[in-house]
Design goal:
The chain has 17 helices and 21 strands. The strands form 4 sheets. It has a 6-stranded mixed sheet, with helices on both faces. Strands 16-21-20-19-18-17 form a 6-stranded antiparallel sheet. A hairpin with an 8-residue loop joins β4 and β5. By secondary structure, it is of the alpha/beta class. It folds into 4 domains: about 160 residues, 3-Layer(aba) Sandwich (Alpha-D-Glucose-1,6-Bisphosphate, Chain A, domain 3); about 90 residues, Alpha-D-Glucose-1,6-Bisphosphate, subunit A, domain 3 (Alpha-D-Glucose-1,6-Bisphosphate, Chain A, domain 3, 3-Layer(aba) Sandwich); about 80 residues, Alpha-D-Glucose-1,6-Bisphosphate, Chain A, domain 3 (3-Layer(aba) Sandwich); about 90 residues, 2-Layer Sandwich (TATA-Binding Protein). The two termini are about 35 Å apart.
């Protein structure tokens, strides 16, 4: 039986050697080659291919490069493991038709993945992904639906004739960075920060950018280790943050930063070891741009992130647009509205003037600059934020979920019409992406199925700290999972 390749919330992901195989990577690459050649002049413009530090990522990237080269699409192949935002910016800098990125982001070490980016460095929108899926050959040998099989030119041959060229993607990114932030004041600020790149391709990047001044960056979990020891997965949320939360106060550091396996997401740890959650980080970043940088323009948020953005939008008179979960929805909306910032609950944020792609490196620098300019610790920043928009409390529960029960559970949730959650009145139900219950305090609870893993996620944000867990467990009961 042919394995069907489907692009989820952010690309196709699978278990290495089970469904994520060289044959299937080549099939996916052929689909990209067919579509981008037909619609984006890829034969003339070429494409970028990059990869992370996961097991065999460089070899899977080489397999994709062989397919594009055989389809007469020039390839720029990164010479080493490279952060996702750097790969995405390379597509812009080289005026490429798009990019392929071999990464499974925050998934467990057993997995790898395949992301597709457009000429703007952003996630390809869902309709285009469907068109790519439609031209993926059924096998690597048989004729596909478009009458073409998977083409392949051996990498050594492609390199010899410059059909594939290896390059350093970091140069263009670093040259562009001053357009987004002046790092000189950060270098001289005397901050002591700890960076946890979570064994991923973010290793060395903050040190490289901030080296040469009074600010010091110390790394933990640095370098390549594709089994990701000391954490469940390279996702910058608890419990994977435990080591950094211990290290920051022990080292008397001002703050700690995490970047996930491909460095497109950020985690933030306060001076006392407290984890600053992703919704709070999004509100802090928006406040930083609006108040300290004087930016104006729309804010794009997913259905699963903070209502603090709506309050900031009212205060600063900027519109707030809401999308489904995933940058395949956020990126097109950012381009459509010329948004100043776009982001999601997972800790990924993008910025106007940069690209509609998450960037954990730039986010870390922005948060440091916020600390520097206000001369406040992360804890004081949160107090300052809550003084403006009021306290907001958030958490989520991820529950493994058998795909065979999908229809049953969806039907159960759809039929449930709760009047209250944790004693708070439910005002309405939003079904843009999952089921979000709007509550009387301005908070919400969301139940949705992950687009990349067999998991149901239950999220909540409320102004009542003592009701967070009760709301989450009410959500699990609605889904019949508790």
């Amino acid at each position: 039986m042919t394995y069907e390749i489907k692009f989820g919330t952010d690309g196709w992901r699978g278990v290495i050697a089970e469904d994520y195989t060289f044959e299937n990577v080549r099939r996916a690459a052929q689909g990209v080659a067919t579509y981008f050649a037909a619609h984006h002049n890829a034969h003339a413009r070429g494409m970028v291919i990059g990869y992370d530090y996961r097991f065999a990522s460089e070899h899977f990237a080489a397999a994709a490069a062989e397919v594009l080269a055989a389809n007469d699409i020039p390839v720029l192949l990164t010479e080493t493991g490279t952060p996702t935002p750097v790969i995405s910016y390379a597509a812009i800098a080289n005026q490429a038709a798009g990019a392929i990125n071999i990464t499974a982001s925050h998934n467990p070490g057993t997995d790898n993945g395949f992301k597709v980016r457009n000429e703007f460095g952003g996630a390809v929108d869902p309709e285009v992904l469907k068109k790519i899926e439609a031209v993926i050959p059924e096998t690597s040998n048989s004729l596909p639906r478009e009458g073409r099989g998977v083409k392949r030119q051996p990498l050594a041959d492609a390199l010899q004739v410059n059909a594939v060229m290896k390059f350093d993607a970091s140069a263009a990114y670093l040259a562009h960075l001053p357009d987004m932030i002046d790092v000189a004041p950060l270098k001289s600020a005397g901050l002591n920060v700890i960076h946890d790149p979570m064994w991923g391709v973010g290793s060395g990047w903050l040190k490289r950018i901030l080296d040469g001044g009074k600010t010091t960056v110390t790394e933990i979990h640095s370098g390549r280790n594709p089994i990701f020891p000391d954490m469940k997965r390279p996702e910058p949320i608890p419990p994977n943050t435990a080591r950094l939360q211990e290290t920051v106060p022990a080292a008397h550091a001002h703050a700690g930063f995490l970047t996930d396996g491909d460095a497109d997401r950020v985690g933030f740890v306060a001076e006392n070891g407290r984890f600053v959650n992703q919704l709070q980080v999004y509100a802090l970043l928006a406040y930083y741009l609006l108040e300290l940088r004087g930016w104006r323009g729309p804010i794009v948020k997913t259905i699963s992130t903070t209502s603090m953005l709506n309050k900031l939008g009212e205060i600063y008179n900027v519109p707030v647009h809401e999308t489904g979960v995933g940058f395949k929805y956020i990126a097109p909306k950012m381009l459509e509205t010329n948004a100043m910032i776009g982001g999601e609950e997972s800790g990924g944020f993008a910025f106007r003037g940069h690209m509609p792609e998450r960037d954990g490196i730039l986010c870390s620098l922005f948060l440091m600059d916020l600390m520097r300019q206000l001369n406040k610790t992360p804890t004081q920043l949160l107090d300052h934020l809550f003084g403006i928009v009021g306290p907001h409390y958030y958490d989520r529960i991820d529950t493994p979920f058998p795909p065979s029960r999908n229809a049953e559970v969806r039907a159960k949730i759809a039929n449930e019409k709760p009047s209250h959650l944790a004693g708070l009145k439910v005002l309405s139900i939003n079904t843009l992406d999952g089921f979000r219950y709007e509550m009387e305090d301005g908070g919400w609870m969301l139940i949705r199925f992950s687009g990349t893993e067999p998991i149901i996620r239950v999220y909540t944000e409320t102004t009542h700290q003592d009701k967070v867990q009760e709301i989450l467990h009410d959500g699990l009961r609605l889904a019949g999972l508790e």
